[in-house]
Structure formats: C-alpha cells, structure tokens
C-alpha cells in the first residue's frame, strides 16, 4: 500500500472518572502501535459545524449563545450522526448506539420519528443550515455538510 492509500478510522470512547484504570489499560495497549495517534477531549472541548457548537461533555448544542433544547435521544442521535459525518449509519447501527439494545424490528419507525423532531428543532433554530440529515431509503441516515446551504 502506498503512502496516503490507507483509510483512517476514528474510535471515540468516553470514560468516566471511575473508569480511570480501564482507560489507562486501553491506552497502554494502543500506544504500543507506532502509527497510533490520539486526542483527548477536555472539559472545554467543542465540536463545531457551521452555525452550531456541540459541547460533548455538557451534552448541549448552541447556535451562538442560545441553546437548542433537545431530548436525550435527540442529542445522542445528532451527536452520533455528526461524529460519523459522511457515513451512512443503518437503522440497526443507530438503534444499538442510541438506545443501547438490539432492535426488535420497529427501529426504523422510532428513529424516523426522532429524526423528524430533531430536524424541526435544528432547522427552526438554524433556517440557513448548511448541513443535511439525509435519509438513505430503507437503509438509514447520513449527516452531510453542504456548501450550497440547501436542505433536501
């Protein structure tokens, strides 16, 4: 494989204060690999997308200084889509990550309902949003930034 042909992967794991020994053990294993690079978020970390700031440690989203009020599931869903920007997540993947359990067959309806509510809140707060939460019919959803500032 030539330089630059590799596909990067991102692994995000959140450890609580009580999980410090587990974190140290995981990091010891990962640091043994010469190409491993990591970044640790601190309390003030912000994930920015045009028009919005996401504070993962606070579980809050802001437009300017105004908070966009989301339910726990809406926040989890949005954050999952944003950190996987450009990748289609299947209904099953979304359900397992956000609800923390295996889907029983109705996951697409549950997710569609939450996506609809999420879109309403986000687009009401940010009518000129330059991102889209795109539905891939019968597969799942994908968060995309678009330069044309159009939503589909």
Overview of this structure, please?
This protein is an alpha+beta fold. The chain has a domain at about 40-145: Winged helix-like DNA-binding domain superfamily/Winged helix DNA-binding domain (Arc Repressor Mutant, subunit A, Orthogonal Bundle). It is built from four helices and seven strands. The protein has a four-stranded antiparallel beta sheet with strand order 1-2-3-4, with no helix packed on it. A three-stranded antiparallel beta sheet has the order 5-7-6. Helix 2 (about 70-85) crosses helix 4. It is globular. The protein starts with 19 loop residues before the first helix and ends in a 7-residue tail after the last strand. The mean pLDDT is about 80.
């Amino acid at each position: 494989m030539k330089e630059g042909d590799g596909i990067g992967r991102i692994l995000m794991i959140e450890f609580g204060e009580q999980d410090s020994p587990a974190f140290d053990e995981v990091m010891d294993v990962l640091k043994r690999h010469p190409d491993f690079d990591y970044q640790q978020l601190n309390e003030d970390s912000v994930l920015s997308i045009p028009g919005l700031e996401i504070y993962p440690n606070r579980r809050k989203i802001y437009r300017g200084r105004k908070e966009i009020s989301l339910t726990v599931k809406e926040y989890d869903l949005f954050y999952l889509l944003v950190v996987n920007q450009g990748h289609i997540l299947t209904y099953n993947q979304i359900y397992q990550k956000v609800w923390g359990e295996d889907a029983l067959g109705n996951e697409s309806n549950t997710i569609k309902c939450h996506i609809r509510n999420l879109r309403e809140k986000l687009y009401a707060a940010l009518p000129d949003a330059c991102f889209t939460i795109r539905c891939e019919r019968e597969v799942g959803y994908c968060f995309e930034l678009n330069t044309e500032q159009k939503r589909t």
